[in-house]
Specification:
Distance between the termini: 18 Å
Order of helices and strands: EHEEHHHHEHEHEHEHEHEHEHEEEEHE
CATH class of the largest domain: Alpha Beta
Mean pLDDT: 95
Structural class: alpha/beta
Number of helices: 13
CATH superfamily of the largest domain: Enolase-like C-terminal domain
Length: about 375
């Protein structure tokens, strides 16, 4: 079996879905154009993957797949994912303006093909550890802009059965600490809460927020300051009791430095940010050898999040999976990304990614098709 071609559809979603009920801000991209790529093979087995696109980068990412990476894929045996992954890695040396996430996405499609060829779910190919994973709900900042909206969201998420709630608050501590306290008041002492500041704080403000999280017993403090500030992250981790979770934007080959330096307490990763299924499994191996947990991050793209679910079911190092905005759960029938009654996502049992695509929906939302 060899790879014979690739096709990428741009699947359009309005940015209004993300910002509703507020209007889309001036200057923000009006559309989310998700690149949905199919890898074709000589045996007729097709592998599917998708990319992330919140800032208008979807069309550029799609063209990069066809202009750069197709030459690596053409004529290769898709079952030899490691050889393809390593060739993409060597190509990355001079792709200074591209991250490894693009070829990591293609790696997901190769695993989808491998699963379909063997008739096995990806989780089984990786070595299944469990069949389901507890899910926490993320509350994007526009949904919790004031105390009233925070109360509505937190109460609703808990009632829906989520096993935890993560607040995404990017403002100064004086503005956000009342919301952080209110969330704890609403859910009680033993319910898992997390805080994600999207690398927006100064060290001093992160320290002040961290002390508050210690008192409120939050599960973790996510990306309080930029990942690149490794010295400051280490100082913060040593100063507060709440575990610091970071390295979301750190490439796979820079990741060991964060562990060796003891800069953070919990590693963040997923199939998009850590070079595909092949890459994130390497990251999980590093973490297990070094005694770290790796919490799997949402990729905000349905096929990548299905891949994340398979990976999570093949490791014990991730306590949760993340459920983000509902706009990122599209194009699938019997969607495994929806939370079940037990507060978990359940791993698909079909071969490969194991999902049924809603082709009618995808056709109706396709605005452009690229072919090689």
């Amino acid at each position: 079996m060899i790879i014979t071609g690739i096709t990428t559809r741009l699947i359009r979603q309005s940015s209004e879905l993300w910002y509703a009920p507020d209007p889309v801000p001036d200057g923000y991209t009006p559309h989310f154009d998700f690149p949905f790529t199919t890898i074709h093979t000589s045996e007729g087995i097709e592998g599917y993957t998708m990319d992330y696109c919140p800032l208008g980068q979807g069309p550029g990412s799609a063209h990069a797949v066809h202009d750069i990476y197709y030459r690596v894929l053409k004529g290769k045996n898709p079952l030899h994912h490691e050889a393809i992954w390593q060739e993409c890695r060597s190509l990355q040396r001079h792709l200074y303006n591209f991250r490894e996430a693009i070829w990591g996405n293609l790696d997901v499609a190769l695993w989808d093909i491998k699963g379909k060829k063997t008739g096995m779910p990806i989780a089984d190919l990786l070595g299944r550890y469990r069949d389901k994973v507890p899910v926490y709900a993320s509350c994007p900042p526009q949904t919790i802009s004031n105390i009233e909206s925070l109360e509505q969201q937190v109460v609703q998420k808990k009632q829906l059965g989520y096993k935890g709630i993560k607040l995404q608050l990017f403002g100064h501590s004086e503005k956000e600490l009342p919301k952080i306290r209110k969330a704890r008041e609403l859910v009680g002492d033993n319910y898992p809460l997390m805080l994600d500041c999207n690398a927006a704080l100064s060290f001093e403000d992160a320290l002040k927020t961290g002390y508050e999280l210690d008192d409120l017993q939050y599960e973790w403090f996510e990306e309080p300051i930029p990942d690149a500030h490794i010295v400051q992250l280490k100082k913060l981790s040593q100063a507060i009791r709440t575990p610091v979770l970071a390295a979301e934007t750190v490439g796979l080959f820079e990741l060991p430095h964060y562990m060796i330096e003891g800069a953070i307490d919990i590693i963040r990763g997923d199939v998009h940010h850590k070079s595909g299924i092949t890459g994130v499994m390497k990251a999980l191996g590093m973490c297990e050898m070094m005694g770290y947990e790796l919490e799997i991050h949402t990729a905000a793209s349905p096929l990548l999040d299905i891949a994340n679910l398979h990976v999570a079911c093949a490791t014990r190092l991730s306590r949760f999976l993340e459920s983000h905005h509902s706009m990122f759960r599209f194009g699938l029938k019997n969607n495994p990304l929806e939370i079940q009654e037990d507060g978990c996502q359940h791993c698909p049992q079909g071969p490969g990614l194991g999902v049924e695509l809603d082709w009618d929906w995808l056709d109706n939302h396709t605005i452009k098709v690229l072919n090689n």
